[in-house]
Amino acid sequence: MTTARTPANKNTYLWVAIVIAVIMFAGFSRNYYLRAWMGTRDITLMVQIHGMIMTSWVLVFVIQALLIAKHRVDLHRRLGIVGAALAAVVVTLGIATIADSIERQQPQASVKLFGQLFVAFDGVMLLVFACLTLAALINRQRPETHKRLMLVAMISLLPPAWGRLVANITHQNIELIVLGLMYISVLSCLFADTWRYRRLNLAFALAGSALIAANQLTYFAQINAP
């Protein structure tokens, strides 16, 4: 995220970043952040490392939004170098974690089944995150495009957190509910941005459409997974 037209708008992106961070924390509190007190199942070392890297990324995202709100564009750009490297680790480790999960659950999986499970385990969402983050970095000299691409990239990481939150309430139609929540997450931001600026931002619209399409693909893979 980077400069915007008014301080109010900068603060809006900061609050959105905080809301996303809260959703992430709430979703993974039982199985990760508060696992020591809630007594949930053990997790592998890879998953623990994955959790630490993801937490670091979320914190960097919030700090970047805070720096812009505080008009510290200079520090924002310096931290952006760290963020770019961290994003690469998020994607690489995320793919490795998904592959490890598939191997543990379906050790004899064929290439076709592996591909289906990769999609079902939010692998496509991770690739969308990678593409949007890369596009945002390429457009870092175009603040209005950069911040929107980064926001949608961050939203693309929400499905696992939403899924765990829903599972804490009901075990019925989890995949469908998460799909609906992702529609709401994307469209609410898109509509709010369009209302504020009185025009539809093309980069935001394209990124949001790609994310929704990826969510639909993930949903179909999940409901048809063995």
Provide an overview of this structure.
The chain is mainly α. The protein has one domain (7-223). 81% of the residues lie in helices and 0% in strands. It has helices spanning 7-33, 35-38, 45-69, 73-105, 111-120, 123-138, 143-155, 159-167, 174-197, 202-223. Helix 3 (45-69) runs antiparallel to helix 4 (73-105) and helix 6 runs antiparallel to helix 7 (143-155). The protein is globular.
List the uncertain runs.
1-8
Into which percent range does the helicity of residues fall?
over 70%
The proportion of residues in beta strands is under 5%
Extended strand count: 0
Question: Mean pLDDT, as a whole number?
Answer: 90
C-alpha Rg, in Å? 18 Å
The helix/strand class is mainly alpha
Summarize the SSE layout with pairings.
Blueprint lengths: L6 H27 L1 H4 L6 H25 L3 H33 L5 H10 L2 H16 L4 H13 L3 H9 L6 H24 L4 H22 L3
Helix pairs in contact: 1-3, 1-8, 3-4, 4-6, 5-10, 6-7, 6-10, 7-10, 8-9, 9-10
Brief digest:
The chain is mostly helical and 226 residues long.
Which keywords apply here?
226 residues; mainly alpha; globular; disordered N terminus
